[in-house]
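Please check these two lines:
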Amino acid sequence: MNTIEINDPYIGEWTTFIETDRTYNGDAITDAYCDDILYKKVGNVYYRRVLEDSRVDIRWFGALPDGITDCSDAIQQAFISADQFKLSVTSGKGTYLITKTIYIPQNPDLAFLSKTYDFNESVFLIQSDFTVFESGYYDQGELVSAIGEPNDTNNCFGIKFGNFSLLTTLYNVTSPALVIKDWHQGCELSNISSQKFSTLLKSINNYYTVFDDLRTTHQNEARIGERFIFLGDINLNVFRALVAANSLVGYKFDGPLRACHFDAISVEGVTTGIQFNSEVNNCSIVNSYIEGFEKAFEFKSYIDNFTIDNNYINFLSRPASKLISYVGLPINNIHLLPSNIFVHMLGYNQLFENTENDYGYGIEIGLNTSYGSSINNFLLNDFGANYNLNGKIRFPTYLANIQNAKGLISGNYSGQYTRGYDGASGFEVNSSQPNLVHLKTKIKHTWTQIVYVNLQVYVGSVVKYYRGFFIGNVFYEFGSSGISVTTGLESIVNSDGFIDIQGGSYESGDIISVKGEVRLI
């Protein structure tokens, strides 16, 4: 089969064309295809350019990587030609000036065939405020923007787009750099960086899409813009190795989020790290770096299941920083697992903030065993109701399964139903009367509860023992002959509803100390 060699006018290289009567996708070649870029006609013979890996180069269409020539139309034509013949796109490395939005054609091939746009680590230079790349579709043969149109039932499959940087001569570009819509199985945005863009990506109704190695920041740590914006249904997406630095909001989700996964992302220097404005179902964030935030995670709707696992979280010793801010709703289910590491956290009140201080169901806290010197550090009003401390949390002297006045956390110390006292004893000695046993607890009184008591009372050199249990305010004491009702100890209900335990009579001398335990059974 005959071939011819032609010197490409843009790249200055000799290119081989092979004799054929078919296009790259098998259609019959006609004169209309002969653009002297991909197809030529010499005499009555058609020739087709020999491609490497089924790719066209944007330079063949007149895009010059000199940072001066306007490459917008050339790149757009490369996209259209590649799409027409089911080819991929690449470029020679360099800096390409772009002055207007370029549309990315749909790829609605139900065979899931891939289409790759790999720009070979090139730079796209922007000198005015506009969106650089945007999803498009064909309207009566003309490629136009898909943004603002209803969600496309054709969808897009197998588009892989990336491997470039965005630079601008402006202080700040307010238009989203990339606007992607209706991408589904096999689609991926990867290896893209930007500086001085308020928003790198606006994603609309994209399913099964991978967002990988997208890096965006602003100069001088200015908190400007919302770096990643996700709208519509957000299902089965993967967010991997994303960096959203120096922004008001790192990642904003304005649509239901289902079965999505965040892995090795960065939240740095932000007012709000990840903001969920709609329902969240079965999502997770793992292996990520979270630092320099006012709010790391902000939930404004239902949270069916969200897991935070194996992350490095640095509060930078800022007392106002909150890891999780949420609206208390009945079906919430947030899991903060013990594999997370907290650095420079000043208090446990920085873990959760319930913005309405209402329900807060399903908030599960599991901390590394190195954390926690006091149960009372967790008894915070702004946690909301029904938060749970994982049973593996250990304090210096006992296993701390606790509950505050608003939540259910099963326990084995005096404060099981309210706020308790530190230590293994579960009580605090009131020494206002030196020869009367008087112990303060934080057990909320009911007539049906059982309170176990085992005390050693040191009166001078004498040790007295009180062993037994209360049912209501009746004391059943263990003796050598069995259990009997006695007045050795009394249960006193204070005005706040908490129980004090007091001796039924005065001791023979001053009480030196009281040891033992008071426990709610």
User: Anything to note?
Assistant: Residues 381-387, 390-420 have pLDDT under 50 and may be disordered.
